[in-house]
Amino acid sequence: MKKFEAMTLEETYRLACDALGCSMSELRYEIVQYPSKGILGFFAKPAVIVAMRENSPSEGRKQRDYQAASAKKAKTKEHPATDSVREEKSEAKEMNFPGEEKTLTTETESHEAIIENFFDESSSETQHKSDSGTVDEEALQKEIENRIKELMEVSCFDIDTVEVDVVEKTAYIFLDGEDAALIIGKEGYRYNALSYLLFNWLHSRYDLYIKLEVAQFLTTQEEMIRHKIQPVIEHVHREGWGRTRPLDGILVQIALEQLREAFPDKYVGIKRQRDGSRYVLINEFNSRRQ
Question: What is the value of pTM for the model shown?
């Protein structure tokens, strides 16, 4: 056994392998001391191992094969019938079944095709227009529903209800199911991500805006924001300007829509603070108040 020392265990292993002329799998070692960084660089300790080279691969393999054969022979004498059954099961597990492999490959390829086609513009060349030239909203709704259902089926979420209505260039999408809460996520972050994904797809493909509702989540958030911005609306009526408190994710968008509806003749926009949080500012169009 030889002693090797370095600042990390990985370095000691490398030094030992180089010195003994062997690979890591052939190295037999014992850790004498684990490395320590100490305190502010003081009292640092290196890694220390003692190691030796194992028998050559061929000798080690012969020894292991001999031990395994001896043990197997002993077991066969004691339990011949049981051992035979175990051998058959072991052989069955090691066999390759092309049919099963093909099924798994086909299923994986199918999932990948669904995701790729979801964003592939060439896969949706149909214009969804009737003979009069107007958009066939029913056919468009059906296609969007089917595509979202396919996406949900290959995802990890259990969503059994997908409904789509297209009204005035806006797709109203409703999702519900056992995993609706998981799709919303903590503080609605996963809901925001899904909304962003669907908007990018529908706006670039069909020139549609979206409104996504997952198990009444949006309705609940809109009602909550309506109560939260009521004092802001009253302040704007008195002072002519106002601002909300910092809001997260979808909440700032909801507040923006509601305040623009309440003050159509004023400037209503989203502002960002130094810490990255966002709020909605309301003032006169020519005002510089921040």
Answer: 0.45
